[in-house]
TrEMBL record:
<dbReference type="Pfam" id="PF14365">
    <property type="entry name" value="Neprosin_AP"/>
</dbReference>
<dbReference type="InterPro" id="IPR053168">
    <property type="entry name" value="Glutamic_endopeptidase"/>
</dbReference>
<dbReference type="Pfam" id="PF03080">
    <property type="entry name" value="Neprosin"/>
</dbReference>
<dbReference type="InterPro" id="IPR025521">
    <property type="entry name" value="Neprosin_propep"/>
</dbReference>
<protein>
    <recommendedName>
        <fullName>Neprosin PEP catalytic domain-containing protein</fullName>
    </recommendedName>
</protein>
<feature type="domain" description="Neprosin PEP catalytic">
    <location>
        <begin position="171"/>
        <end position="425"/>
    </location>
</feature>
<dbReference type="InterPro" id="IPR004314">
    <property type="entry name" value="Neprosin"/>
</dbReference>
């Protein structure tokens, strides 16, 4: 695919990073006070957002989609991107795959159904030159310490990834997070891809979340850089418990940089077809069809931009290399799997927030979190399964993982769990 670029005009300063969040949401009690400065700042951002909206669409599921001028999107409020030129498409076809792997995939198609997150388009579409931005509902409350913190994961320190060690205490793992992942490291990675089965796991509290994703990471554990894409149930960002498409980035382990979707400057969206944060339909259900989304994060060798591709052919946009230090080059590790965030992970009672679909890994029936057709890209442009992988998890009694690599054409990774259960009180 040939790349093309367009010069952007001057950004609309102070673009609405919060994308229409309403100040007084249902999560704020009568006795809670919001600093006047914060209220004024958010109101100012809302006003700027409205002035950049070309068209407004009401989705069947209740979402409001604003079609925003592509040159006035939030990304360009980032100091490093003030003079950025938009790359409208990757400079090459990223889906170059090993011949044997491609043949195996074509010969062994299963019953998984790929799907698109475009229910809102039944109400219309965003024209070329604009991007769809999901507006948050009124019930989303402003609970972050500052406007800049909204949409960012809470920072945490943890030791470097190692192989599974069931004797390692939770206090040695990443604080307030529990993961069940498959990872590869030891090489230089410029791409990660996977077919992620889509579920709607239970999330117990509004300040917790459950995600399934592919990711690339670099840097030390206390200051890592990361780009991620997948699906999430995240009430604190989206205001409900629907399963939604997301992208995420950070350049400092989420201490001061990074966010979901377009809730802060950084990600440059180019697609007018997919709205980040939109609800995904349909969803997998036990004993039903296993629906999945295909996500691919890859680096353009000519521009250094980290692109996100959805469903094999829709290029959503990219993170420019100017946002990063380590990820100006390639990544040190590629990962697939699930993550749960909660303050109730390190001691009883454990959170009931589920990972995957809330079931422990089940490769026989497929009734659990699952990622198939996992691929990485190293120094060449060819996609392949990694030569070496390892399973890592924090709380095997709460969330487990199982890698299936023997006697199967294409390895598969199963993960998940219910959180609190008799083995995980």
């Amino acid at each position: 695919m040939a790349g093309s670029c367009c010069s952007r005009g001057l950004p609309l300063k102070g673009m609405a990073i919060l994308l229409g969040i309403i100040i007084f949401g249902s999560g704020i009690g009568e006795g809670d006070l919001i600093p006047g400065k914060k209220i004024l700042e958010v109101r100012k951002k809302i006003k700027h957002l409205e002035s950049s909206t070309v068209r407004r669409l009401q989705s069947e599921d209740g979402d409001i989609i604003d079609c925003i001028d592509i040159y006035k999107q939030p990304a360009f409020d980032h100091p490093a991107l003030r003079n950025h030129t938009i790359q409208m498409a990757p400079s090459y076809d990223p889906n170059i795959e090993e011949a044997t792997a491609k043949a195996n995939r074509l010969q062994n198609q299963d019953s998984s159904m790929s799907l698109a997150s475009r229910l809102w388009q039944k109400s219309g579409s965003c024209r070329k030159g604009t991007i769809p931005v999901r507006r948050l509902h009124q019930k989303v409350s402003l609970k972050t310490n500052s406007v800049e913190d909204y949409g960012r994961k809470k920072p945490s320190s943890y030791p470097p990834l190692t192989h599974i060690n069931e004797e390692i205490g939770s206090n040695l793992q990443q604080s307030n997070r529990s993961v069940a992942i498959l990872l590869t490291e030891g090489y230089s990675y410029s791409g990660v891809k996977g077919d992620i089965q889509v579920w709607n796991p239970h999330v117990e509290s509004d300040d917790e979340y459950s995600t399934s994703q592919v990711s690339l990471k670099s840097g030390p554990y206390y200051d890592f850089e990361s780009v991620e894409a997948g699906w999430a149930v995240n009430p604190s960002v989206y205001g409900d418990r629907k399963t939604r498409l997301f992208v995420y980035w950070t350049a400092d382990a989420s201490k001061k940089t990074g966010c979901f979707d377009l809730t802060c400057p950084g990600f440059v969206q180019t697609s007018s077809e997919i709205a980040l944060g939109a609800a995904i339909y349909p969803l997998s259900v036990p004993s039903g069809l296993p629906y999945q989304i295909t996500l691919f994060i890859f680096k353009d060798p000519n521009t250094g931009n980290w692109w996100v591709q959805y469903g094999e052919k829709i290029n959503l946009g990219y993170w420019p290399p100017d946002l990063f230090a380590s990820l100006r080059g390639n990544a040190e590790t590629a990962q697939w799997g699930g993550e749960v965030y909660s303050s109730k992970l390190e001691r009883p009672p454990h959170t009931r927030t589920a990972m995957g679909n809330g079931q422990f890994p089940d490769y026989i029936s497929g009734d659990s979190g699952c990622i198939k057709r996992m691929r990485i890209r190293e120094n060449s442009l060819v996609l392949k399964f990694p030569e070496w992988v390892s399973t890592y998890l924090d709380e095997y009694r709460c969330y487990n993982a199982e890698y299936i690599g023997d006697y199967i054409e294409d390895p598969e990774f199963y993960y998940g769990g219910p959180g609190q259960n008799p083995m995980c009180p």
